[in-house]
Amino acid sequence: MKKRNLFLRGALCSLLLVMLFTNSCKKIETVPKDWFGSDLVFDTLDRLGTVAAFNLNDLYNYIPGGFARISGDFLDAASGDAIPSRNNTLVEYYTNRRVSVVSNPDPYWANSYAGIRRTNIFMKNINNVPIVETDAATIANAKLTRQYWRAEARFIRVLMYFELLKRYGGVPLVGDKVFTLDDNLQIPRNTFEDCVNYIVTECDAVKDSLRRENMPDGDWGRVQRGAAIALKCRVLLYAASPLFNGGGIETDPVKKALSGYLSYDATRWNAVIAAAEELRSIGFYKLNDAGSPTFFAATFTTKRNAEIILAKQSSNNTSLENTQAPVGFAGTATSQGLTSPTQNFVDAFPMLNGLQPFNADGTINVASGYSASNPYASRDPRLDVTVFRNGYAWLGRTVETFEGGRDKPNTSVTAVQTKTGYYLRKFLGNFPTGSTYSNQSHNFPIFRYAEILLNYAEALNEVGRVEDAVTQIGLIRKRAGITAGANSRYGIRVGITQDEMRQVIRNERRIELAFEEHRFWDIRRWKTGAVDLAAPVYGMKITKTGSTLTYEKVQLGVLQFDPKLYHMPIPYDEMIKNTTLIQNQGW
Description:
By secondary structure, the protein is mostly helical. About 35% of the residues lie in helices and about 10% in strands. It has helices at about 1-25, 40, 50-60, 110-125, 135-170, 190-205, 225-240, 255-260, 270-280, 295-300, 320-325, 345, 450-460, 465-480, 500-510, 520-525, 530, 570-575, and strands at about 80-85, 310, 340, 385-390, 395, 395-400, 425, 445-450, 535-545, 550-560. The strands form five sheets. Strands 1-3 form a two-stranded antiparallel ribbon. The longest helix has about 35 residues, at about 135-170. The radius of gyration is 27 Å and the shape is globular.
């Protein structure tokens, strides 16, 4: 027994020594682990750059798509233009003031910097990939390919910086550096002006190295020259706008410089005009035909057209039809109706003659021809390709959003249904007949030409060129199918003032760019949150008696807004990791 005990003790000691030796030889991670190492991604033996190309393609995934990406809801459901059909969704945090440093439905900070790091690794190592060719022509083509790849990666990086800028103001600019665990990561925020200058400079630097317009079908969806100019135009638009152009809410000048310019400068609008004119001078981009709502709708379901400057690509699918169409369609065309556009949004659409149906005080504009008993007749044709409303033709029947109708049954069996009397139609394929959905192109538009015209009109108006702004809005309205009128002004009155035109432009952005993630940010850059986001939201209650429909505008609730929501809070975990960061006002 004694010998056995000694043997067991000896064996145990040996085992402990082996474990100690094994642990002492374990390799410690000294660099962050990526998907797989740079030596494999940027292999000197990868003569065609196949793996590097996959890596570049993956960088595109860091660009945010806009289709219902906030836990199944569109960001516009927090802009007053819609509300979620479901209860207690995350996007409502923006309208019930539940956003905090630890609970922001759309923080994007970590995602951006992960993408920026990946981009910097790509740019540092791409020259290691030979992309070997044999004759003079293909050698030149390989050189051009490398040029395109670097420019694409650089553009994606600067787009991520803009996504950070519009949320937080100035953020740390890290340049081309690829950090290691030994580097000092306590990096302070750059000012808003620093970040704007960086984005503009980068856009100018890469634009001529990107692919030219009218690229082959196999390259469609990649960043082209116009995207760099469009991004420059957008960031300059934000920089010239009231919130950022000296109008910040901050009381501390240090925080104000991080979130915008310290003082107003009217000449900042001139830079927006120059950028819009630069893009127009390319001569390739145009509105997707004119004079018919069919072409407006097709802009979002035609994978390739000259209005799209850049879109986030995806394979054809029926996801939007399944999640957004009215709930009464079941079986092979299951529809969930997750988004309920508001009556506020519907009321923003003018009549076919271009006149607004309501006066500023909410009374009916008699001159417009609006009828309360037939509210959808003779309206801007964009309404019917943006919103499902009662009587709309879909899958062989008309949509029924009257009380007790098939698309608003008001029963416990239907857990989700419209709260407003409307569903989201925009971006969906055209299915007036049939019984099922077919796969459609659903590429989210990052930049399109209509936005450039609207940016141009806004800047022209702000520098006093009101009639030039009228011309740009006329182009948008002509394509929409609004009638020109005797004076060919598409409903815009002769002698309109700058203040009146400002409201026309803002309303035109609201309906033309609806659900493309502009309205949420436009309200902030215009600094109109106290009006637009602290207001009642309405729906339309439709009662059917026999064949007669009665329409009643009903209040559904009141949105809430706090001025600190003009800028998002820097996430708590980022503040803990980097103690040099200064938090935004109010957070």
